[in-house]
Write a structure and sequence with these properties.
The chain is an alpha+beta fold. The chain folds into three domains: 3-138 and 390-499, Orthogonal Bundle (GROEL, domain 1); 146-201 and 362-387, GROEL, domain 2 (2-Layer Sandwich); 202-354, GroEL (3-Layer(bba) Sandwich). It is 53% helix and 14% strand. The chain has 19 helices and 15 strands. The protein has helices spanning 3-33, 59-65, 71-87, 91-110, 115-135, 146-155, 160-173, 175-178, 243-265, 279-288, 298-308, 322-326, 364-387, 395-405, 416-436, 441-455, 472-475, 481-499, 511-521; strands at 44-47, 53-56, 189-193, 198-200, 202-205, 217-226, 268-273, 291-293, 330-338, 343-349, 356-361, 389-391, 460-462, 469-471, 478-480. The strands form five sheets. Strands 5-10-9-6-7-8 form a six-stranded mixed β-sheet, with helices on both faces. A three-stranded mixed β-sheet has the order 3-11-4, with helices on one face. Strand 1 and strand 2 (53-56) form a beta hairpin. The longest helix is centred in the first third of the chain and has 31 residues, at 3-33. The chain starts with a helix and ends with a helix. Residues 1-12 have low confidence and may be disordered.
Length: 523
Amino acid sequence: MSIKQVSKDTEVDERLAALSTNANAIRAIASAVEGTLGPKGLDTMLVDKFGDVVITNDGVTILEMMEVNHPAARMMINTAKAQQDEIGDGTTTASIMAGTLVTEGLEQIKRGVPVTRVIEGIKAGIKITAQYFKDNAVAIEKLDDPVLKEVSWVAGRGNDDIAELVFDAANMIGREKLLDASFKLSDCIFAQHGAENQLIKGCIITKERVSSDMPRELMDCNVLFIDDALEPEKLDEEALNNEAGFNRFIRLQEEFQENLKKLSKLGVGLVLVDRGIHDIAEEFFIDAGIMAVQRVSHKELKKAAEFTGARMIKRTGLKKSVEELRTYLGHIDKVYEDEHLEQIRILGGAGKPMATILVGAATEEVVGERERIARDAAAALQAAIKGGIVPGGGSIELAAASFLESNREQVRGMAVYGINCVVEALKKPFSQIVFNAGFNPLEKQGDVLAIQKQENNIGYAIDCDTGQVIDMRKLGVVDPVLVKIYALRAAGEIAEAILRIDTIIKKRPDKTADNRVKDEFEF
């Protein structure tokens, strides 16, 4: 080999060094979650430095909790988190497809295909595939369609009790609310050790009464929500050092008591407060037979206000007239404290329909995983209502790979090599599901593709119990099409970002940050 040839090879190796390093990091992340995919997927144990253990099958939980230092790996984890926040499911599928896209892209680049052409092909392949998914989706017209329960069952990893709860909750809340972009059914999940599985037509406040002397249960009453501390206006300590200031202090306390008396006239039985409640207010509520709860999270306050028809008010708003305050009140049929579970339950609100899915667990260790399972099931069901369903088990991806292979002519030139990357990525979910079930992926892939073509039915995949080729829709294995599309696009975004990185350079220290830290520690 000539010196000139050696020099050229070295230059190429150096150019690919950053890409190879990043690709290895992405593959490592994908391999960490790929074993959890499918009905036969196994669990992962995460252990911290203190020996605390989390055992989970949830892809995004694994990614969030694992210790990662490589910047490319962190990019992938951040993208997975974004997918979870947006659609609530499909992070494992997105991760393993991203790993395949990057791996295949690197191989094409090593063969001499320009990076820009590979990325061009990947983007074109993803666009074609996303449209293919949409074209083959079946819309869900009615909330009581049993297929929605099947969607929850698949996403809920075969937990019948959770699928049933989520399905019933969706029907209780209604289609209009489920289609609201700002509403997430998964936010209605509440898991607790020692609780029984329940669907509550109302909301839960994870706090107790301020005092056990307050009523434990009330019926048919008005409610007031205070997005503030419930206390008299404060004066500076210097103002209290003179008679005028002290008199002002006394008047403020008297005014506060007069404002509290308005609540009795308005028939208020429940008061929820964002911050603390002053002793004067606590004593008044006890005497008036009002249940009060303090330090309620803003999220729970907002949800309860929507359910009861109330409007949140600041403490200064209590100065308003009785008639003005009436417009801020909500109404409920019942409120009571569950002393065993240490929570307040609000039922029969006059506002928008609300459901709380209470998922029980036998032990503390299982609570978190049961909650994650329920959230996935709820997110999948809501996504199915919004966008429709497609057959699961990797069948739709496998059919899309075959479709993409036969439509390569839509992409010209070397970009076709990027199409090949997408084809391999689409085959990966099916192959991984089959592998996790203990069968040969290549053998089963050929069987499935042959029957899909023979029967003109893209729903065929593998029964992971028997290894037989079967129509996933008949087996009840269906997935939301939006989850498929989001996973595919997320994988494409990761791959494009990684493949574009040509050089890794260590940043110089941020002098501004260093000076700020120095200033903070100088006395």
